[in-house]
Amino acid sequence: MTEDTPLTPDEHDSALAAELALGLLEGPEAEAATTRMTEDAGFAQQVRDWQERLAGLAMQLTPVMAPARAKQGIRERLGFGMAPLAEDPTETRPWWRGPIGALAGLVAVAAVAAFLWLPGNAPITPTGAQPDYQAQLQSEAGDLRVAARLDGREMEIDLQDGAAGEGRDLEIWWIKPDGSAPISIGLVPRSGNARMELPADLDPTEGIKIALTDEPAGGSPTGQATGPIVAVADLTRL
C-alpha cells in the first residue's frame, strides 16, 4: 500500500497484528497493541495467525554454523571464557600464581580451618535463607498460580497450579515502570520449578511488575509479548 491508498480498518488491523508479531512496535504503540489483545479476541487471533505464518517461514530456513569467533565473543561477554592468548604465555607470572603461591594458599586455608574449629569459634551456618523479592501471579479465574522469587541475580519460577495449553507455553516478563516494552525472562516450566539468571541490565526497583503471557510453544517468536496476558503482579521486596 502507498500513502495515496489509505488502508481499510480491516487492513489496518491486519498490518498492526503483523507488526506486533514481527516485534516492530515499540513503546506506547507496543503497549497499546498488547493491551488490545487482552480486550479484542479477533485482534488476538490475527496476531496468532501471523505468528504461525512467521514460524512456518522460519522452519524453511537452513541452519548455519556460527563461526568460532562468534561463540568465543559470546562467552567473553557472559564472563565464561577468555579470548585465545588474552594473556601473554611468555610473561613471567607473579609468585602468588605459581607453585609457591599455591602452597602458601593451602597453609592459609589450613590455619583458618583450625581457628574455626577451636572451641567457641564454630562456623556459623545460615538457616532459612529467604529470597530478596517475590511476585505471586494468579490468573483471573484462579486456576493458574505461579510464584516468582528473586534471590540476588537468580530468579526461581515455580508453577504451583495449572499449566499452559497444548502447543503453548507460558512466558514470564519483566515490566519496568517507565513504560518501555516488557523484557522476557524465560518460560515457565511445565511442572515444578526452574531457575534462571536475571539479565545484567535488569535491576529490581520500585514499580517493577512481573507478567505472564500465553505464547506459542517455545515462547514469543518476536522477542516481545504477543500472547494474551494471563496474570500481572508487583515484584515486592521481602
Describe this structure in words.
With 238 residues, the protein is α+β, with helices and mostly antiparallel strands. Among the domains are: 9-58, no CATH class; 133-237, Superoxide dismutase, copper/zinc binding domain (Immunoglobulin-like, Sandwich), CATH 2.60.40.200. It contains five helices and nine strands; from the N terminus they run αααααβββββββββ. The chain has helices at residues 9-22, 27-39, 41-59, 68-78, 99-116, and strands at residues 133-138, 145-151, 154-161, 168-175, 183-187, 193-197, 209-216, 229-234, 236-237. The strands form two sheets. It has a five-stranded antiparallel β-sheet with strand order 6-3-2-1-9, with no helix packed on it. β1 and β2 form a beta hairpin. α1 crosses α3 (41-59). The radius of gyration is 25 Å and the shape is globular. The N and C termini lie far apart (53 Å). Mean pLDDT is 76; it is low at 82-90 and 120-128. This is Anti-sigma-K factor RskA. Residues 107-229 form the Anti-sigma K factor RskA C-terminal domain.
Concise account of the structure shown:
This protein is of the alpha+beta class. The protein has helices at 9-22, 27-39, 41-59, 68-78, 99-116, and strands at 133-138, 145-151, 154-161, 168-175, 183-187, 193-197, 209-216, 229-234, 236-237.
Task: List the total number of helices.
Answer: 5
Please tell me how large the radius of gyration is.
25 Å
Residue share in β-strands: 15-25%
Spans where pLDDT lies below 50 across 5 or more residues: 82-90, 120-128
User: If strands are numbered along the chain, what order do they take across the biggest sheet?
Assistant: 6-3-2-1-9
The coarse silhouette is: globular
The CATH top-level class label of the domain at 133-237: Mainly Beta
Distance between the termini: 53 Å
Q: What is the string of helix and strand elements?
A: HHHHHEEEEEEEEE
- CATH T-level topology of the domain at 133-237: Immunoglobulin-like
Number of strands: 9
CATH architecture of the domain at 133-237: Sandwich
Mean pLDDT: 76
Structural class: alpha+beta
Query: What is the name of the CATH superfamily of the domain at 133-237?
Result: Superoxide dismutase, copper/zinc binding domain
Most strands sheet: 5 strands, antiparallel
Helix content: 25-40%
